[in-house]
Amino acid sequence: MARGRLTARLLAAALLAVLVPAAPVANAQPDDATDPTPAGPQPPPLGDDRAVPDDDGKPDLTYTRTDEGCVQALDGSVELEDKAWGQDVLQFGELQQFATGAGQTVAVIDTGVNAHDYLAGRLKGGGDYVADGGDGLDDCDGHGTQVAGIIAAKPTSDNIGFRGIAPDATILSIRQSSEYYEFKPPEGSNLPEKPSAGSLKTLAKAVVSAANQGADVINMSVDSCRPATAPITEDERNLQRALRYAVEDQNAVVVSSAGNIPSKDCPDQNSSDPTNPDYIVTPPWFSEYVLSVAAVDKQGNPADFSMHGPWVSVAAPGTEIISLNPGDPRGLVNVTAGAGGQQPSLIRGTSFAAPYVAGLAALVAERFEKLGEPLTAKQIMDRIKATAAHPAAEGGRNVQIGYGMVDPVAALTRMLPSEEGIPADEAIEVPFQMPPPHERNWVPVQVAVIGAAGGVGLLLLTLFIVHTVRRQRRDPSDMM
Question: Which of 89, 116, 134, 472 gives a 20 to 30 Å CA spacing to 202?
Fold first, then answer.
């Protein structure tokens, strides 16, 4: 009996714990809520500094090609049995009814882009910061060509499953870096050797150049990493100026890869504490002007190589990549030959997640222009973040994948209150009150009990009388 009473009390306590909230405030999370200022060390704001970096169109140093020659992907005889899984996840089959990237120019600031049949008529040279006088249409590394393919490849036959997310967009190629060019200082010079071409200085130039050439979207699958304890450098500050110029003055959407680990300057994963990262990655650090893209794998998990950070905006497929073959203008490839005779490796990295988002930005820009409701660069960036599949985290955002995997169909079709002039939802106080105690009216029970008792009493009295009468009645034979 005591155990039964204890169980009943525990059940009652558990029920109260469920029914009574810990606090009287309920937060409403609007669909298009995006926090433009993530936690963590923030770059110093530019304020009234409206300076624009000078762009002379030239490399920062005189680079020469290394003796290794250029890396090319495997030859075109490779048979690819399956199309890129990212195409199904991002619903490429549904996108073409809304937009194809027509009329949009996506600048690819990378290692250059080689000519390819799947980019025919839509590839333009935009400059070269590796080889003085180049036009950006020479890709020694193969990296930029594969990035461009994810954005805008358009096969010559419907029997080919692979295609870019924005197959009618124009690619503006600007070569800014290469691992197959080096700087050797002249004798007597105090300058250090540089084993590869590219720097934050030339990246800032390239961003300004792309913006001035009318790019609607700028993709930068290049990153620089350093310890978070170091102060901002002048080259970083200059890149920050270039990014603001591109976004605010030239209305270009800027997309960057989130960065990979391990790398030379960032050998370990970043801290999981959004307020205290160990490393800072640029351009992603300048999140006010940049959509930085993390990589997820085929199972939807953050890729193990994808750099975390409070500035990460969204995520996209970054493993098991298929794209254009830099060494075959009619071929596709899913591996890249390694430098220095290394074995070929699968194509993967945040470098290849970013172009999915860059192509999506081109689709969004085209879609709303056709609807007569053109969006600014920042509105496009906010739309992509707001319509992503938010992770189960506070504010719908975390350091691994930002606001989550992009959802292209939602980005192209969903109504956002902020774009319609509808104010965002606010947290409201919803006090919880227990209902008043129910005081039972015992009168009916009392009447029923009294009535029942009276009936029982009357029945007993009747039985007693009948029994008495029977005992007093005697059989005449008993009298004899």
Answer: 116
Six-digit token pair at 298?
A: 């085929």
- Residue 314 forms beta bridges with which residues? 293
Distance separating alpha carbons of residues 365 and 253, to the nearest angstrom: 9
257 included as an active-site residue: no
Instruction: Determine if the pTM surpasses 0.85.
Output: no
Q: Are 136 and 213 in contact (CB under 8 A)?
A: no
Q: 60, 138, 139, 143: which is the annotated catalytic residue? A: 143
For residue 123, the SS3 value is strand
> Which residue is it, tokens 């699968």?
346
pLDDT (0 to 100) of residue 467: 78
287, 292, 351, 382: the active-site residue:
351
- 64 pLDDT above the threshold of 50: yes
Query: For 421-457, what is each residue's pLDDT tens digit?
Result: 888 777 788 787 777 777 777 788 788 888 888 888 8
Helices then strands, counting H and E runs in the chain, come out as 11, 17
Q: Could you say which of 32, 55, 60, 110 is catalytic?
A: 110
Residues counted in the chain: 480
The CATH classification of domain 64-429, taken from the options 1.10.1710.10, 3.40.50.150, 3.60.15.10, 3.40.50.200: 3.40.50.200
Q: How far is CA 397 from CA 39, 53, 300, in A?
A: 11, 33, 15
Nearest CA to 176 out of 59, 73, 77 is that of: 59
The dihedral sign for the CA sequence 359, 388, 377, 255: negative
143 is catalytic: yes
What pLDDT does 24 receive?
A: 33
As a whole number, mean pLDDT of residues 259-277 equals 90
Is the predicted pLDDT of residue 70 greater than 60, yes or no?
yes
